[in-house]
Amino acid sequence: SVDRSTRKQLIRELFQLKQVLDIPVVLVTHDLDEARILADQLSVIHHGKTLAQGTPEDIMNHPPGPEVARLVGHTNLFHAKILEQLPEKQITRLGWHAMTLDAVYCPGIVPGQTVDWLIPPDSIILHRVDRPSRGERENPINGKVLESLVMGEMTHITASATETVGETFSLSLPSHVARRNNITEGREIRFSLLSQAIHIMPGESSPGD
């Protein structure tokens, strides 16, 4: 319950104290970004049961299943089927609706298996309208902006995927990028899903596309 600048200063001081004090510290917070900055280990507890424990980076980027993914705030969660495994290229190929997506190699799953997958909002790259993007050929998606919320330095976008029915993505990008590309509701856009950021969660999904 402090102003933004004071909060930033307190987080910085807590981070410095953690480095010099040789004592255990228990941090209770509802702010996942704060936990990610300050914690060495993070536990996800739900209904009295520990669902995951590890470094904040590992739990946030590689949750063990969709339940943990939802609890730590992921919204870009989908079902898919494994089309093929390409270990020599370190690629797992997913079939998602009528599309084929390349993801970072995930061993231990076989073609035909139904899985869940996610991608963080900040790993979705908007294609610039004035020139091609470097990632234009990496899992490109055509979409339409459903909502655009400017929140200071960042703009949060909800976009539908043209090639699918009812599937939407959450994107986060700097507000100056949103302004430069005239991101408004109803605008058609094109974006890429970075293959290295697609996280596959085998064994916990329900039947999907």
Characterise the protein shown here.
The structure is a single chain. With 209 residues, the chain is of the alpha+beta class. Helices cover 20% and strands 37% of the residues. It contains five helices and twelve strands. A five-stranded antiparallel beta sheet has the order 5-4-3-6-12. A five-stranded antiparallel beta sheet has the order 7-11-8-9-10. The radius of gyration is 19 Å and the shape is globular. It starts with a helix and ends in a 7-residue tail after the last strand. Residues 205-209 have low confidence and may be disordered.
Strand content: 35-45%
Mean pLDDT: 89
Please tally the helical runs, counting DSSP H or I stretches of 4 or more residues.
5
**Strands, total number:** 12
Category from helices, strands and their pairing? alpha+beta
User: For the largest beta sheet, what order do the strands appear in spatially?
Assistant: 5-4-3-6-12
Helix percentage range: 10-25%
- Poorly predicted ranges: 205-209
The oligomeric status of these chains comes to single chain
Biggest β-sheet description: 5 strands, antiparallel
Q: What is the ordering of alpha helices and beta strands?
A: HHEEHHEEEEEEEEHEE
Distance between the termini: 44 Å
Rg (CA only): 19 Å
Overall shape: it is globular
